[in-house]
Amino acid sequence: MKKLGMTIAACVLAQAAAAADLTLYSDGDFQGRPLNVVIDMRQLGSLNFNDRASSVVVEKGAWVLCTEEDFSGKCVTLGPGRYGSLKELGVDKAITSVRHRDAQSPGIFSESAPAAPAN
Fold first, then answer.
1. pLDDT for the residue numbered 12
2. Domains in the chain, start-ordered, CATH in brackets?
3. Whole-model pTM over 0.90
4. Extended strands (E) in the chain
């Protein structure tokens, strides 16, 4: 039973990693502790990842990585790709907040069905 639980946990973690728009790694070359991100994070310290990132994978969209809280300080924008070292960008072990470059809409919620287009 314990083995089954561990297998299920591993599958859930693998799915979470595949669903991440941005993954920060504590070491260069995508090594060390990963942090998967899908929403804007004003302070990575709340996840115990402040000033820890040394490499990044951007799966989807463009992301702004900043050295201060609330998306301030020195910021760099990264598009989809693999960035094995943040040293060249001058932000190694300095990222404190991350956000999508373009504003994300949570959508419009309504109890009624949308109206049919007029012909």
1. 40
2. 21-100 (2.60.20.10)
3. no
4. 22-27, 31-37, 55-58, 63-68, 72-78, 81-83, 97-100
